[in-house]
């Protein structure tokens, strides 16, 4: 969230209040003391953001994060959880146009080296059903092959679309995630520079994450990798074999059923 989307509203000596107007961004609270109330109020009033995800920084310390619901505070991230790498907490937004977070500073004698910082994202049209929802690193992970319609939509709406092959797959059981290291032949689109050229080899590479429960394995051949970015990381969406994608896209284009144009060459 840019500085232009942030405003301070001091209401009392004990609690400062800050408003964030962006659907995604970050906040740094240096030398945390007493409490800080953070109100997420996206400018897009027509959008219904039903899910909020928070990822504390790796050096998060000095506070715990709560969400306000009907005048009650519910713990989202404790100081101990915030220090864990890759820990992402998601929860339902009961009031889509306004979500209030409450940061409570931990009692410390020396706060000079402490900083409570985190990234946040407001997501739309997600389901918060299921007991393991808060533990999921991604709320939209797909652990099944996409059908033809989903593949065609993915090339239009995804944050990244790349053609490549799988170099390696590694698993992180502690954080319930897998990482697919991709050797990229062509970058059709990417939101940020996740896929970059290696200076030594000249090869384009990039990591894509997915949930461990998806049981991703290394396979040969070329794929069209699509997906979205969350907290600066690429997360896998649809990933058909490239030859299968070409067949589906060309057939849809002949029928005039392709939702968007795609660069084939």
Estimated radius of gyration: 21 Å
Q: Sheet bearing the most strands, described?
A: 6 strands, mixed
Strand order of the largest sheet: 1-2-4-9-6-7
Mean pLDDT over all positions: 81
- Helicity level, as a percent range? 10-25%
Write a structural description:
- With 265 residues, the chain is mostly beta strands.
- Helices cover 11% and strands 43% of the residues.
- The protein contains 3 helices and 16 strands.
- The strands form 3 sheets. Strands 1-2-4-9-6-7 form a 6-stranded mixed sheet. The protein has a 6-stranded antiparallel sheet with strand order 13-14-12-11-15-16. It has a 4-stranded antiparallel sheet with strand order 3-10-5-8, with no helix packed on it.
- A hairpin with a 6-residue loop joins strand 1 and strand 2.
- The longest helix has 14 residues.
- It is elongated.
Provide a brief overview of the structure.
A 6-stranded mixed beta sheet has the order 1-2-4-9-6-7. Strands 13-14-12-11-15-16 form a 6-stranded antiparallel beta sheet.
Keywords:
265 residues; mainly beta; six-stranded mixed beta sheet; six-stranded antiparallel beta sheet; 3 helices; 11% helix; 43% strand; disordered N terminus
């Amino acid at each position: 969230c840019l500085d232009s989307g942030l405003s301070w509203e001091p209401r009392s000596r004990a609690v400062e209040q800050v408003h964030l107007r962006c659907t995604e961004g970050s906040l740094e609270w240096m030398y945390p003391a007493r409490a800080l109330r953070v109100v997420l109020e996206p400018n897009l009033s027509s959008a219904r953001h039903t899910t909020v995800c928070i990822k504390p920084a790796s050096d998060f310390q000095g506070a715990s994060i709560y969400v306000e619901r009907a005048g009650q505070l519910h713990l989202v991230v404790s100081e101990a959880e915030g220090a864990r790498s890759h820990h992402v907490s998601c929860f339902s937004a009961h009031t889509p146009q306004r979500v209030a977070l409450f940061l409570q500073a931990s009692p410390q004698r020396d706060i000079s080296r402490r900083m409570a910082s985190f990234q946040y994202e407001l997501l739309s049209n997600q389901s918060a059903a299921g007991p393991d929802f808060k533990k999921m690193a991604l709320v939209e992970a797909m652990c099944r092959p996409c059908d033809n319609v989903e593949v065609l939509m993915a090339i239009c709406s995804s944050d990244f679309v790349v053609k490549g092959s799988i170099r390696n797959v590694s698993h992180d059981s502690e954080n319930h995630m897998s990482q697919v290291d991709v050797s990229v032949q062509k970058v059709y689109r990417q939101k940020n520079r996740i896929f970059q050229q290696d200076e030594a080899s000249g090869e384009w590479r990039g990591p894509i994450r997915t949930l461990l429960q998806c049981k991703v394995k290394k396979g040969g051949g070329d794929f069209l990798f699509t997906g979205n970015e969350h907290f600066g990381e690429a997360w896998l969406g649809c990933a058909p074999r490239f030859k299968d994608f070409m067949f589906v896209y060309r057939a849809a284009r002949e029928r005039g059923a392709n939702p968007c144009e795609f660069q084939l060459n």
